[in-house]
Amino acid sequence: MQQTSDEIALLADLELTRDLPDDAREELAAKCRFQEVGGKKRVKVAGLNGDRIFLVDGHAVRLSNGVAERLQAFQGLSEPEDLCGDSPGAEDCFVTESPCIVFRIPGAELARLLSDGVRVEDMELDPKEGEFLAEIYHLVSNNTLVLPARPEVALKIQEMTNDPEAGIADLTEIIQSDGTIAGALLHATNSPLFRAAKEIKSIREAVVRLGFRNTRMLAVNLALRQAFLAKHAVTKEAMEAVWTDSVLTSAFSYVISDHLKILDRDRALLGGLVAGIGGVPIIQFIELRESEPKMTTIQSLLGKLCSITGVLVINYWGIGDDLVAVAENFDNWSYEPDSPDYASIAIVARWAALQSEGAAHPSASEVPAFRVLGLTPPEPGEAIAELESSSKTLESLKSMFNL
């Protein structure tokens, strides 16, 4: 018992783990251990399978990216030193200069609590997934995980929905502030779906042609699309699939909110678009670390980590707790709030998207969000009856978003 108490005390002192809840820290402590390491030992960080090692007593040298840093610690008199470092490279290692006492934290267990009380429960990870999860946690805890840039244009356009004085001039000004989005909008306006008798050459003409609401929805879509980027053929395929799912969920979210007249349909549209945003840093993370990324690994990690990283992204963007709940729960079919919210809309929208695509989905009777929204759960194989009258709006949105 004394050993566990010592480990709990050390975890409480480490910056990496001091913010864990008491019960989580106790659970982690039971799986940590102190180890003695002889002098002149070389340990490669990549061989630790994502575990974290701290120098408690002794002298060691940490080698990272060809740079050597001499570390020392005195048990009970000084803070433990991190022997793994931030974002360790493939060749990083540490060498003990004297007999040392180190404290080892299992990486997969450490990653069970990633951010702001978000717990990963009953997660089964193979060694590779555990290594990825541990490194993602390490990056998060050190504020070095690269997250998608905040989509300023999309958010400014969304803010206009609450401004009754906003008009065409305001919307035109926002769109023109981003050349990429402005160009994409002009291209879309001149596509067969919206093509006029003459070519549209200005953003103002495009707004007039599309209409205020259509322009706003399309511009938000185009702005957010820029976050879903990848370079490798496999990761590009995975990213495209995540984006397509997000857009389809977004379209259904809009028509659900619009038909039921609950909450704000434009906010619901944005909620659907960011529901799967957690997939972006995961795919980009894998792309940077794997020369030959495998789709099976990507899909497995997306299924297990997407909601966690989604919460990180939405909090980082600062776009509201209501959309944090969307990212956290969009794949939680048992989610059941007391009243309709954007997360329950996104869940039913995702169910509708999967059903329409013939993809695997649970029985609607097992999804409480239907009841929360006041929708009748469809029978197996059937679509949501209440949305039949919204089919034209849905098809218009899908066409607008190139689905």
Automatic annotation (TrEMBL):
Start and end residues of each HDOD domain: 147-333
InterPro entries assigned: HDOD, RNase_Y/CdgJ
Signal peptide: none
SUPFAM superfamilies: HD-domain/PDEase-like
The organism's place on the tree of life at top rank: Bacteria
Pfam families named among the record's database cross-references: HDOD
Official protein name in the record: HDOD domain-containing protein
Natural source organism: Thiorhodococcus mannitoliphagus
